[in-house]
Amino acid sequence: MIKVNLRQAMVDYARRTGTRTTYAEIAKETGLSKATLEALGSRSDYNTTLATIDLLCEYLRCDVATLLEHQPDVTGGRESNANKN
């Protein structure tokens, strides 16, 4: 599973810039909806687009690795395509 670490990226942004940001401010500056940002910040299973990730990386001045994290599926769910061969 890919996890979006939006809240942590926002904390990192505040540490780097000295400016705290909110979902409302990010929404205003990026054009993303506040509801989308809230879902990204609270739902580990939220499926988003690369365009959204790109906008967030631009706004938060971070790279993709700061925003995204791969977590192995420990629930016994779907196998990855790499493991099926």
What does this structure look like?
The protein is mainly alpha-helical and 85 residues long. It has one domain (2-70): Orthogonal Bundle (434 Repressor (Amino-terminal Domain)), CATH 1.10.260. It is 56% helix and 7% strand. The protein has helices at 6-17, 23-30, 34-42, 50-60, 64-67, 81-84, and strands at 2-4, 68-70. Strands 1-2 form a two-stranded antiparallel ribbon. The longest helix has 12 residues, at 6-17. The protein is globular, with a radius of gyration of 14 Å. The protein starts with a strand and ends with a helix. The mean pLDDT is 89.
Mean pLDDT: 89
Regarding quaternary structure, what we see is single chain
The figure for the number of domains is: 1
Structural class: mainly alpha
Distance between the termini: 19 Å
Helix content, binned percent: 55-70%
CATH architecture, by name, is: Orthogonal Bundle
Q: Which segments are poorly predicted (pLDDT under 50) over 5 or more consecutive residues? A: none
Q: What is the rounded Rg?
A: 14 Å
CATH superfamily label: lambda repressor-like DNA-binding domains
Q: How many individual β-strands?
A: 2
Shape: globular
Look up the CATH topology: 434 Repressor (Amino-terminal Domain)
Spell the H/E element sequence: EHHHHHEH
Strand order of the largest sheet: 1-2
Q: In CATH's first tier, which class applies?
A: Mainly Alpha
Number of helices: 6
**Beta fraction of the residues?**
5-15%
For the largest beta-sheet, the strand count, sense and barrel status come to: 2 strands, antiparallel
